[in-house]
Design brief:
390 residues; alpha/beta; Rossmann fold; Dihydrodipicolinate Reductase, domain 2; 2 domains; nine-stranded mixed β-sheet; six-stranded parallel β-sheet
Length: 390
């Protein structure tokens, strides 16, 4: 839905509702982000190219997420640390550079990747391009933050892992929900319990037009564009020692990437279900409801705003003043790690990047082929990474 084309009353109501959900500052930047996406210049503004020593960030992809989340959180927390931004749509690159006072903007990714000032590159371009940009950046010794999904094919996953093995660069992923306040509390409580868990996600998303770029064959559709958030969250809840094998059971009708249900069984007998519905317009954005039962622990969480946890006779209620999906923490933790040269376990992160990617890729395959698929872990597969060359 194009919000700027809606009646004035609708737009006012939308803004007021978002103020209640996200606060004034976040709502304001979301509104500005809508205008940013439509910005056109008769004459492009000039770049001053005066990059300071503390400006170590480059951004590839200047869409709404980069504008309203990545740039916003970096700028509001650390100040002017972004050295350059790039988008194939030069108007968007210029718009973001102008708003956040970024010294340099371009439509050529090599200007970002080969820039000696830049140490960390946030990649938030179209999905199919994430891996190629990341590999090129890693080859040039950069650290990268890859917005979801980090890959859209098995070949890309092999190539990314191969590049990580050869590079000193760190790789961070844009899966934010496990690191959110509620995400961490959920895991803390469930980890205290023994035995298998029962987990359920119900997600209601926007219906999007069939000509949306998500549906281009090379972009991976909504399983890779949306569902990967919740497959990653569930993977983080299961005991690492008993995660595998995982069986993926698809339930679908005419569509393979929305109005679907996927059931997962794990090596520790945990069962998880993700239901993804996309019908009409959801006025408050994506609706997410999570339920869990493990041992004596019962959890219900609504939209990262309210949560109830019961353990035997103890009942606790948690509230966020505003919705917190973990975007801020995830974006800033990557920058902080690079800025302060904090520890980074390369082998553990490589295993995680493979396992979460393999799970959503095989979920897509199971839904498209409408068949049950069993998968194993990165370590168990004894991969020959030479099958694909970077």
């Amino acid at each position: 839905m194009d919000y700027l084309k809606q009646p004035l009353f609708f737009k006012i109501k939308k803004v007021l509702r978002y103020v209640l959900m996200y606060g004034i500052r976040r709502t304001y930047i979301k509104v500005i982000g809508q205008l940013h996406m439509r910005k056109k210049y008769d004459k492009l503004p000039s770049s001053n190219n005066k990059i300071t020593r503390r400006q170590i960030v480059g951004i590839i992809g200047c869409g709404n997420y980069s504008f309203s989340n990545i740039s916003y959180y970096l700028n509001s927390t650390y100040g002017k640390v972004i050295a350059a931004c790039m988008d194939i749509n030069i108007d968007r690159a210029a718009s973001m550079a102008s708003y956040y006072k970024i010294p340099f903007y371009t439509s050529n990714s090599k200007d970002i990747i080969t820039n000696n000032h830049i140490e960390l590159i946030y990649i938030a371009s179209n999905h199919a391009s994430h891996t190629d940009y990341a590999i090129e950046a890693l080859t040039n010794g950069k650290n990268v933050y890859i917005e979801k999904p980090h890959v859209v094919s098995e070949e890309q996953l092999f190539k990314l892992i191969n590049a990580m093995e050869k590079s000193v660069g760190k790789v961070f992923l844009g899966f934010n929900r496990p690191g959110s306040r509620f995400g961490k509390i959920i895991k803390e409580y469930l980890d205290k319990e023994t035995g298998a868990g029962m987990y359920n996600w119900f997600v209601a998303g926007h219906a999007i037009d069939l000509d949306h770029w998500y549906f281009m064959p090379e972009e991976g559709g909504r399983v890779l564009g949306n569902l990967c958030h919740w497959t990653d969250f569930i993977l983080n809840l299961v005991s690492q020692k008993k995660t595998y094998p995982i069986k993926i059971y698809p339930t679908r009708s005419g569509k393979s990437d929305c109005d679907i249900v996927v059931t997962y069984t794990f090596g520790d007998d945990t069962i998880a279900v993700v239901s993804f519905s996309a019908k009409g317009h959801t006025f408050e954005g994506v609706k997410e409801v999570f339920s869990a039962h493990k041992g004596n622990c019962l959890i219900t969480m609504d939209n990262f705003k309210t949560m109830t946890i019961e353990v035997s006779d103890i009942k606790r209620c948690y509230y966020n003043l505003f919705r917190d999906h973990g975007h801020k923490k995830n974006i800033l933790s990557a920058f902080k790690n690079v800025l302060k040269n904090l520890p980074y376990n390369h082998s553990e992160q490589m295993s995680y990047i493979w396992n979460t990617g393999w799970l959503f890729l095989k979920t897509k395959e199971a839904l498209e082929q409408n068949k049950v698929i069993m998968i194993h872990s990165f370590e168990e597969r004894n991969l020959d990474l030479g099958d694909y060359q970077t």
